[in-house]
Amino acid sequence: MTWVRVRGKDTPASLQWQAKTPRHLLNAHVFHETFKAMTADLPPDTHQDTLADTVRREDPARYMAALFAPPDTRARLLALYAFNAEIARIPRSVSEPVIGEMRLAWARDAAADIFADPPRVRRHPVYEALAGLKDVAGAPAQDALATLIEARNADLGEGAFPDAAERERYIELTAVTVMMMAARLCAPGWQADEDGKAALTAAGRLWGYAGLLHDFARLCAAGRPPVTQSELVQSGASLEALRRGFQPDKAHMAREGLIEAARAAAMQLDASRSALPPEIFPAVGYATLARGQFKTAARRPDPYAYAPAENLLGAQLRLLWASLTGRI
């Protein structure tokens, strides 16, 4: 065996790449464990599903990134992501807005009960797990959880966004808020400076905008196209045409502002990501997958075309590379 000098210690040459890499970024088993976790058969969709199964099914990108965290932190991230998945799917699973409003109100009350004195925890696996976060360092605050729930009311309405500022506000109340919460769970002692806050915001925006692009056809069919009213007017498209999947050329033109917003967020992240500490990678790393999503969507001439699922192996490799290089 050949030995080399690394960090003042004699180290096997075959291990020197590990010695040069920050320990919390490189777990030798991460890729293997991620692959096993992502390719295992999912259990039936029943109340007995674990939180990990729920997140893996509903939010696979965040799930894969969370696997890079230490076990305790990973469990906390999965509890947060399961809560986010629970409220995000409410608007998609109801036939009438009033039913969605009632379910979101129930979620708001259930979250508030956790912070009551004495606390009251609903018999629901998501809220039981959320209650377990209340006293840990970096735990989500009650008002932050309420904000996340209230933001989902926008998913119950119809029509385009009033303007680009309102669309960005929606992204910040959803994708950015989740990322900020997760970052605090990963690094509760981190005091983010302006560059750090800018990087987190940019990563959250990139993920949010890419998500709107990925779901463009579904959102249009639901009567909630992720474009602004002025973008509709300028493109000549109509809400009814978008709902029915007509006028693909005009729909493509209408979403150009959304593509530019995603591109701007990616550029801002490039300029500020060096301010992010390595320990929050499990909270932000999945943003690297959004780059491919929005670029693929931008190249697709038919905005209503089926968006293929993310290639599992490719996503794992991109996450692993991002964790080693810091290039989210």
Layout of secondary structure:
Elements (H helix, E strand, L loop, with lengths): L2 E4 L2 E4 L3 H4 L10 H10 L11 H8 L1 H7 L4 H18 L1 H4 L3 H18 L10 H7 L10 H10 L12 H23 L7 H21 L1 H6 L7 H7 L3 H5 L4 H7 L1 H17 L8 H4 L2 H13 L12 H14 L3
Antiparallel strand pairs: 1-2
Helix pairs in contact: 2-19, 3-4, 3-5, 5-8, 5-10, 7-9, 9-10, 10-11, 11-16, 11-18, 13-15, 16-18
Description:
This protein has 328 residues and is an all-alpha fold. The protein has a single domain, classed as Farnesyl Diphosphate Synthase (Orthogonal Bundle), CATH 1.10.600.10. It has a two-stranded antiparallel sheet with strand order 1-2. The longest helix has 23 residues. The two termini are 35 Å apart.
Provide a compact summary of the structure:
The chain is mostly helical. Helix content is 62%, strand content 2%.
**Mean pLDDT score, rounded?**
86
Helix content: 55-70%
Poorly predicted parts: 1-29, 35-48
- Overall structural domain count: 1
CATH superfamily: Farnesyl Diphosphate Synthase
* Tally of strands: 2
Major beta sheet summary: 2 strands, antiparallel
Helix-strand string: EEHHHHHHHHHHHHHHHHHHH
Calculate Rg over CA atoms: 21 Å
CATH fold assignment:
Farnesyl Diphosphate Synthase
Q: Strand arrangement, largest sheet?
A: 1-2
Note the overall shape.
globular
User: What's the CATH architecture name?
Assistant: Orthogonal Bundle
How far is the first residue's CA from the last residue's CA? 35 Å
Provide a count of the helices.
Answer: 19
* Beta content: under 5%
Structural class: mainly alpha
